[in-house]
């Protein structure tokens, strides 16, 4: 727009409504639970897969395979562990809808990036939005970088002034708990 080169309603920027879409959330921690509320407000149907089954407010717990097969959009909300590393791989992509979009704002290790590019290039899925990649500074030769069906942001999904203050408060609370011989709430292990 600033260069005066933008077209009015370019077809290449056409999107989709969330209303009526099936959104799959892998993981059901605090972020996924808040996202579930937002998605419900947009009229989306939410499917949830998590190791720990809990009551959902608007969504429905399903198996991993059901979530892959039925979701129009899949959003990752799990930590990277030996069990979850590469959870989105060739096999997982082969079970997804051809119009499915993967959103990863969690950890790069969850997605087999070669399998992702192959799945998009062969039409197994429609595309991906990634806020994290296997390299913090993505290499210019990466097939992810200039792919027309992949949007990449520089791991800034939670980069707000408020989140930085909250993180600092949690760190201080954990340090104080440690020195007061209490179990820190936000411990790593």
Task: Describe what this molecule looks like in 3D.
This protein is an alpha/beta fold and 189 residues long. It has 2 domains: 16-158, NAD(P)-binding Rossmann-like Domain (Rossmann fold, 3-Layer(aba) Sandwich); 159-189. 28% of the residues lie in helices and 14% in strands. It contains 5 helices and 7 strands, in the order βαββαβαβαββα. A 7-stranded parallel beta sheet has the order 3-2-1-4-5-6-7, sandwiched between helices. Helix 3 links the parallel strand 4 and strand 5 (101-104). It is globular.
Arithmetic mean pLDDT: 89
Largest sheet: 7 strands, parallel
Strand order of the largest sheet: 3-2-1-4-5-6-7
CATH class of the largest domain: Alpha Beta
Task: Give a brief description.
Strand 5, helix 4 and strand 6 (127-130) form a beta-alpha-beta unit. The chain has helices spanning 30-41, 64-70, 90-95, 113-121, 161-179, and strands at 22-26, 45-49, 60-61, 73-76, 101-104, 127-130, 150-152. It is built from 5 helices and 7 strands; from the N terminus they run βαββαβαβαββα.
SSE blueprint and pairings:
Elements: E1 22-26, H1 30-41, E2 45-49, E3 60-61, H2 64-70, E4 73-76, H3 90-95, E5 101-104, H4 113-121, E6 127-130, E7 150-152, H5 161-179
Task: Provide the descriptors you would attach to this structure in a database record.
189 residues, alpha/beta, Rossmann fold, 2 domains, seven-stranded parallel β-sheet, globular
């Amino acid at each position: 727009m600033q260069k005066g080169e933008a077209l009015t309603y370019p077809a290449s920027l056409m999107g989709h409504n969330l209303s009526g879409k099936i959104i799959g959330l892998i993981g059901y921690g605090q972020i996924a639970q808040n996202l579930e509320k937002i998605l419900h407000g947009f009229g989306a149907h939410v499917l949830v897969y998590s190791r720990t089954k809990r009551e959902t407010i608007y969504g429905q717990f399903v198996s991993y395979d059901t979530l892959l097969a039925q979701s129009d959009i899949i959003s990752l909300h799990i930590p990277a562990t030996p069990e979850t590393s590469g959870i989105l791989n060739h096999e997982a992509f082969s079970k997804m809808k051809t119009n499915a979009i993967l959103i990863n704002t969690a950890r790069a290790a969850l997605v087999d990036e070669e399998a992702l590019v192959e799945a998009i290039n062969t039409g197994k899925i429609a595309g991906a939005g990634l806020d994290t990649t296997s390299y913090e500074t993505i290499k210019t030769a990466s097939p992810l970088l200039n792919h027309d069906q992949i949007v990449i942001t520089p791991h800034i999904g939670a980069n707000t002034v408020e989140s930085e203050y909250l993180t600092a408060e949690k760190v201080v609370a954990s340090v104080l708990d440690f020195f007061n011989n209490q179990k820190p709430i936000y411990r790593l292990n």
